[in-house]
Design a protein that fits this description.
Layout (H helix, E strand, L loop, with lengths): L1 H16 L5 E6 L2 E16 L2 H13 L7 E3 L5 E6 L5 H8 L7 E8 L2 E13 L5 H5 L5 E6 L5 E5 L5 H10 L3 E10 L2 E2 L30 H5 L9 E6 L32 H10 L15 E6 L7 H12 L8 E4 L1 E2 L8 H13 L2 E2 L2 E2 L3 E5 L20 E6 L17 E4 L9 E4 L12 E5 L1 H19 L5 H11 L19 H11 L3 E3 L3 E2 L2 E3 L1 E3 L5 E6 L5 E3 L4 E4 L5 E10 L5 E10 L3 E7 L2 E2 L4 E3 L2 E10 L7 E3 L6 E3 L3 E6 L5 E7 L1 E2 L2 E2 L3 E7 L7 E6 L6 E8 L11 E7 L5 E4 L6 E5 L6 E9 L5 E7 L1
Parallel strand pairs: 11-12, 11-13, 13-17, 17-18, 18-19, 23-30, 33-41
Antiparallel strand pairs: 1-2, 2-4, 2-5, 3-4, 5-6, 6-8, 6-9, 7-8, 10-14, 15-16, 20-21, 22-25, 24-28, 26-29, 27-28, 29-30, 31-32, 31-34, 34-37, 35-38, 36-37, 38-41, 39-40, 42-43, 43-46, 44-45, 44-47, 47-48
Helix pairs in contact: 7-10, 8-9, 10-12, 11-12
Length: about 775
């Protein structure tokens, strides 16, 4: 017992000397990380379960300690303790009776983040520097662990020398980096055909839940191209993922670096499960839809206990290692509560993943590493570590109306944003939950997810679709295309709030197709028979199909033929299917047959059958569509004054007709399309007391404007024409008519032929305007 008391007295003396407000520092990211002692917290470590129980019993017996909290951390146990300063002496005396195998460390803070340092230092020597040279710098260190990535875990003999030894090693110039190992609470950034698809606004926003239409990631449009391959491996670094009915047997054994487990969730872990559902939920008749529904999920659980920075790095290194996680993509919906680079060992692991991972065909293409930006905007300027590590893809959160959430961290390291809900399980994003009531809800889904945690896996899923379409893309290719195809938001171009903009799955896939020169070659107008060929297509067995089987047939060799006199749009589709179940579709829009008339309007409003209008001047407009359709041509009944423009018709509805029919059609290289009719009827109510007639139009010598009463002899005489003028294309008066009666005549015989504009001022009425053509 005496030996135990001496050891612990030395450690606890450190606490009595270093009081709140005193600072230390260590080096990470090439800068000093300033840490400040918090004398109201400490952490106690025990290296055996027997000793742990003794520690627990002793601490619990110290009744005046407030805020006592137990933290289970796997193969090494710890107790995190908060207490009032006036109880410090009593705690100090009680801890002298702890088992010899235990030790205690004070709590430090960095940017309001609690950090508990261990008795370990992590170091990466420079090339050709032996670890013995570094160990010789201090007689107080021994080599505890050697990693396969060139890093060493050193153990010091006295915890009070931790910062001095670490800084001495870094400042020697013998290492690339060196810093103490520590524990800090990692933040899950949620804080926190499928029946629930219509709730998933992030995939397809139709205005549900008060959102704005099209504020989404264009997922259905992307799925028309690919739904991903079933050999794409996405490692979800989080609090674990387990089998689920909506993941269809695609959760593989993973890793829990702290315990050596397989990545399964903790008893209360559901965050990783929700993130995995956003990425990969199956497209079936169950639950929700994932962005990349064929992908494989590999879990890495870094929340099994109070993991050190070295543990987290080990998890990331396991994820990318070809003999272990073998990741294509690593999705990280977690950060530390700091914007400073506080752990070079984690930076090194991420760099390893980006540069050494995803070995395909003997070439390291690099893992795509995606991070949530963090939910700390109210506390810090900048994105959280490690989302600020160079060349990771950093994702912030917008709401379903397209506005950045106030919580979403932001800064110069931002790349993209994606739609998400609020934090603290007050969100409205729907995804899977752990089954059988083990997660957030009693059922197997939750509709309360949100935060940048929900935004990050959307980008990971889009990346999976991209490399499904072109498996040879490098990590840099994927990152660049995502940035360049994002929907710009906020100020024009990149900004610190929205980065490059909202992730756009459809545009990213189309860019992949364009960049590799993939195309269906053949005529885009099919009059009879056309041959199509796929060039630079994705790998796999090729089949051909069409979106209009009743109007277009297509053979197994890509030959397309018009059938049933069909006129309209269609898609020619080439589908490549691999043995791994990867289905990629290349689509070419075509037009089949003659053009058709669309967008019929009367006086600028929608046309409907039996349209009623008042006698007088009106105009019609249409849009011809299909195969470079020519301007519409018009057929007007005899005696109806009219002027035909580009896809427009100005005409006068006479008082003597109860209805008229006007037809229009267009032509392309295949021929002249079918007639489209405007059938308009005379309106008998609400038209005023007169009609105005203008004739002839087109006119050669004299134009006559006259008004006439409507409704019978008991009505007042037609109103007086106060002025009638004809303007040319330069808005200059070309002719002026007679005034003072219900008729005005304009001499146009000497005017150049062409288009003019008639303005007629009727007493007590607004000026009436119409097109006139001199022929």
């Amino acid at each position: 017992m005496k030996k135990t008391q001496i050891i612990l007295f030395l450690i606890i003396s450190l606490l009595t000397v270093k009081v709140y407000g005193q600072t230390d520092y260590y080096w990470s990211g090439g800068k000093k990380v300033i840490v400040e002692i918090d004398s109201s917290k400490m952490i106690l470590f025990s290296r055996s379960e027997t000793d742990l129980n003794t520690v627990k019993d002793k601490v619990r017996s110290l009744a005046k300690i407030k805020g006592y909290k137990e933290v289970f951390v796997g193969r090494q146990e710890s107790l995190e303790v908060e207490f009032s300063k006036e109880n410090f002496k009593e705690l100090q005396e009680g801890l002298l009776e702890l088992p010899e195998a235990s030790f205690v460390m004070p709590s430090y803070t960095h940017e309001d983040m609690a950090m508990y340092f261990t008795d370990e230092i992590i170091v990466k020597p420079k090339n050709r520097i032996a670890i013995s040279q570094i160990a010789n710098l201090s007689q107080k260190v021994t080599v505890k662990e050697v990693s396969q990535y060139g890093t060493f875990l050193l153990q010091i003999s006295k915890t009070q020398n931790l910062f001095n030894v670490s800084n001495k090693i870094y400042e020697s110039g013998l290492v690339e980096w060196c810093h103490p190992n520590f524990r800090a609470h990692i933040v899950k950034n949620v804080i926190p055909q499928d029946p629930l698809f219509n709730q998933q606004y992030h995939l397809h926003n139709t205005g549900q839940l008060g959102g704005t239409s099209n504020i989404d990631i264009n997922a259905p449009e992307a799925w028309d191209i690919t739904r991903g391959c079933n050999d794409i491996r996405i490692v979800v670094v989080d609090d674990g993922v387990e089998a689920h009915e909506d993941l269809a047997g695609r959760v593989l054994p993973g890793n829990t670096p702290w315990t050596g487990g397989n990545g399964a969730p903790n008893a209360n872990g559901a965050h990783g499960q929700a993130c995995a559902g956003i990425i990969a939920a199956a497209h079936n008749t169950i639950g929700v839809s994932g962005v990349a529904p064929n992908s494989l999920i590999v879990p890495v659980n870094i929340f099994a206990g109070f993991e050190t920075a070295n543990d987290v790095a080990n998890g990331i290194n396991w994820a990318w290692n070809a003999a272990q996680g073998n990741a294509d993509i690593i999705s990280n919906s977690w950060t530390y509560n700091t914007t400073q680079v506080v752990a070079d060992v984690i930076v090194q692991a991420i760099t390893n993943a980006r540069t050494l991972g995803r070995v395909r065909g003997g070439v390291a293409l690099g893992c795509i590493v995606v991070f949530a930006a963090g939910n700390s905007h109210a506390a810090y300027a900048g994105v959280n570590f490690p989302a600020n590590v160079a060349n990771v893809i950093t994702v912030g959160a917008i709401n379903n109306a397209g506005t950045i959430w106030n919580y979403s961290s932001r800064g110069s390291q931002m790349d993209l944003v994606a739609p998400s809900g609020d934090v603290n399980l007050l969100g409205n994003l729907t995804t899977i939950d752990r089954m059988n009531g083990l997660g957030y809800e009693a059922g197997n889904t939750t509709n309360r997810f949100g935060g940048t945690s929900a935004a990050c896996p959307q980008v990971a899923g889009v990346a999976a679709l991209m490399i499904s379409l072109n498996p040879n893309l490098t990590e840099a290719n994927v990152r660049t295309v995502l940035q360049q195809t994002a929907v710009d938001m906020g100020s024009v171009g990149f900004d610190n709030t929205y980065g490059f903009g909202r992730v756009n799955a459809q545009a990213a896939l189309n860019r992949i197709i364009t960049d590799r020169g993939t195309a269906i070659v053949g005529n885009n107008l099919i009059c009879n028979v056309e041959t199509n060929t796929l060039v630079n297509g994705p790998p796999g067995n090729l089949t051909w199909s069409t979106s209009q089987p009743t109007g277009l047939s297509i053979t197994a060799w890509g030959t397309a033929q018009r059938i049933n006199s069909y006129n309209g749009a269609a898609n020619v589709m080439a589908t490549a299917t691999t043995a791994q179940g990867c289905v990629n579709v290349i689509t070419k829009p075509v037009w089949v047959g003659m053009p058709i008339i669309t967008n019929q309007k009367v006086d600028g409003g929608p046309y409907f059958a039996g349209h009623s209008i008042c006698p007088g001047n009106h105009w019609l407009s249409v849009t011809p569509v299909g195969g470079n359709a020519a301007s519409a041509t018009w057929t007007v009944p005899p005696g109806i004054p009219f002027f035909a423009g580009t896809n427009t018709l100005d005409f006068t509805f006479p008082t003597s007709s109860s209805s008229i029919s006007i037809t229009t059609r267009s032509s392309n290289a295949c021929g002249t399309g079918p007639n489209t009719s405007f059938f308009v009827m005379k309106k008998t109510f609400g038209c005023g007391s007169f009609a105005m007639m203008v004739h002839p139009n087109p006119v050669k010598d004299e134009l006559v404007v006259e008004t006439s009463p409507i409704g019978g002899e008991d009505r007042l005489d037609a109103p007086v024409i106060e002025q009638a003028v004809l303007l040319n294309g330069s808005n200059q008066m070309a002719s002026k008519g007679t005034e003072g009666g219900n008729q005005s005549k304009l001499d146009v015989s000497g005017l150049p032929r062409g288009q003019y504009y008639l303005h007629v001022k009727i007493r007590g009425e607004e000026t009436i305007k119409m097109h006139i053509i001199l022929d």
